Amino acid sequence: MTPLRIAVVGYGKLGVIHTRLLADSELFELVGVVDPMLENRSLATETHGVIGYECVDEILDQIDCAVVATPTVFHHDVCSILLAAGKHVLVEKPITATVSEAQSLVALAAFHRVKLQVGHVVRFDPHFQTGQNLIQEPRLIECTRASGYTFRSMDVGVTLDLMIHDLDLVLSLVDSPVKSLQATGCAVIGPHEDIAHARLTFENGTMANLTASRTSHTQVRCLQATGSSGHVSIDFMNNEFVNFVGVGDALGALDIDPVTASDAVKQDVTERFFTELLPQQSVPITPCNAIEEEHRDFHRSISEDSSPIVCGSTGLRVLEIATRIAETIKAGTTDEPVSAKGPHFDNAPSSAESTTLYKSHVRGV
Prior knowledge:
Elements: E1 4-9, H1 13-23, E2 28-34, H2 38-48, E3 51-53, E4 65-68, H3 75-84, E5 88-92, H4 99-112, E6 116-119, H5 126-131, E7 138-146, H6 158-173, E8 178-186, E9 195-202, E10 207-213, E11 220-227, E12 230-235, E13 241-246, H7 249-253, H8 263-277, E14 280-284, H9 290-303, H10 312-330, H11 351-357
Parallel strand pairs: 1-2, 1-4, 2-3, 4-5, 5-6, 7-10
Antiparallel strand pairs: 7-11, 8-9, 9-10, 11-12, 12-13, 13-14
């Protein structure tokens, strides 16, 4: 198999990781690193022995594809040059800074018949790879992603920085359009939101709660999903297993009224509750490097002329929802129009009252 000639554009934190893995890959031939900063190019050359280029135009005739790991604001311009030149592109998340830019890239990739993959790398995480096979017809999903302040991605809020990872996971699990969303958040150091919470309601009735913070004293990365097959709990910081509470056959065969059941029946059910009725399994994960797996999928999509797991259209959809959440928080309201009705909405505050209550510019936790 002839390796695909590839370049890495942007030698920041993620660019360094991509470069290191691609330099050791049998699937790709690393042709060079593109970065406008001389010190970054020099470091790439010193570390990996590759040529550094100041502009992407300088390397177009030497490559088949590229990884774009520049700051988000440059994604559209850099990817546009590559796609228009007929080069396949793996661009880091989010796909672009705006929805219109993302739409432009998706259309450009389709026109030139090249692959556009978006780096939602958690999709390739071994924890999620294990857990998603256990999640069937999810009805409730809860995600939390929290970390300390790193001074990275300060050009966007925590929604586009961290929550977008979990948005991609949720949208991959729920095969239904988003019906409505509610969101709130605040800036701590700002000017963008550093804490965000969102609730998505899908047309099929599934609900997802997502919380993200980059001002947390503790690091948390977890996803829980409850569906027809049981309950799955993924702790992305536990490198050994994923917890799964399954609905056993014995539970389906159980036919009792818990109110009128005899003491003997209650005792029997209690004794069997967590062993036969709702048994818990610790499903082992198979460790792997998620970015390396992402590279493999990029290579597969090009060599087999098939869609990458996270294609440009998927990245666009995730960005659309993330943008709606960020704009809802920025507007100082808590929700988009909600179609749900019922007596518990009768005394809901007006839009003006909500704005007063949830001003997103209020700093604090």
